[in-house]
Write a structure and sequence with these properties.
This protein is an alpha/beta fold. It has 3 helices and 11 strands, in the order E-E-E-H-E-H-E-E-E-H-E-E-E-E. Helix 1 packs across helix 2. Bound molecules: inosinic acid (IMP).
Length: 206
């Protein structure tokens, strides 16, 4: 919930004070059951619309296949797709995730493959958060084997300080410091994915 916004459609966020700052991000002191909101639904919607406009421009009228990385990217893909003004289809993959822990084990395994070939297609891989880069490096390599016409990556969040594999996204919503975040698709032990805002998971609750 953005500071000063009286709307609280889900009734779970409480606006308390003016924004504060932490590294590259603005940290609003807003709570959901004691969790700080890092990006409100309004900030997310505005940034997603900007990303969609840029992607539309870059596609220059060409068709697109959007590939969502389950499960975390589902809300982002749903919102982003509706801001992209070209003929687009969806496909989804799933990889091993954080499960009950917080950090990648290092091994990425494909749990669900694409339903359709992407050969000769313009592909946009849609991810919730680019952290160590292991997942997207693995997926990029895998998808390139099918010789798409183009392959770009859109991530809502980027934690560059955590990178192990050298990979950058073509479209980044917000760059954040090394915080563990939840909400808007992102989980902690499968919980919190349905929070409409992106919140910070405090270390003492992890
Ligand atoms: P990577 O392979 O380390 O880049 O991790 C990518 C995946 O890790 C993301 O798709 C998320 O599922 C998960 N992840 C990384 N950081 C966070 C976080 O702060 N909150 C929730 N999930 C995260």
């Amino acid at each position: 919930m953005a500071a000063g916004n009286p709307q609280n459609t889900c009734g779970i966020c409480t606006d308390r004070a003016s924004p504060d700052s932490r590294d590259t991000v603005s940290m609003a002191t807003v709570t959901y059951q004691g969790l700080e909101v890092l990006f409100s639904r309004q900030q997310i919607a505005e940034r997603v619309a900007e990303m969609g406009a840029q992607i539309t421009k870059d596609l220059n009228g060409e068709k697109l296949v959007m590939i969502g990385v389950l499960k975390g990217a589902a809300p982002f893909l749903a919102d982003l797709s509706r801001t992209i003004q070209v003929d687009a289809t969806f496909d989804f993959v799933a990889t091993t995730s954080y499960g009950k822990g917080l950090r990648s084990s290092g091994a990425v395994k494909l749990i669900k493959d694409l339903d359709h070939s992407i050969e000769g297609k313009n592909v946009l891989v849609v991810e919730d958060i680019l952290d160590t880069g292991l997942t997207l490096s693995y997926l990029r390599k895998l998808f390139l084997q099918q010789h798409p016409k183009s392959l770009r990556i859109a991530t809502l969040l980027d934690k560059p300080s955590r990178r192990i594999e050298k990979i950058d996204a073509d479209y980044v919503g917000f760059s954040i410091p090394n915080l563990f975040v939840i909400g808007y698709g992102m989980d902690y032990a499968e919980r919190y994915r349905n929070l409409p805002d992106i919140c910070v998971m405090p270390p003492d609750q992890q």
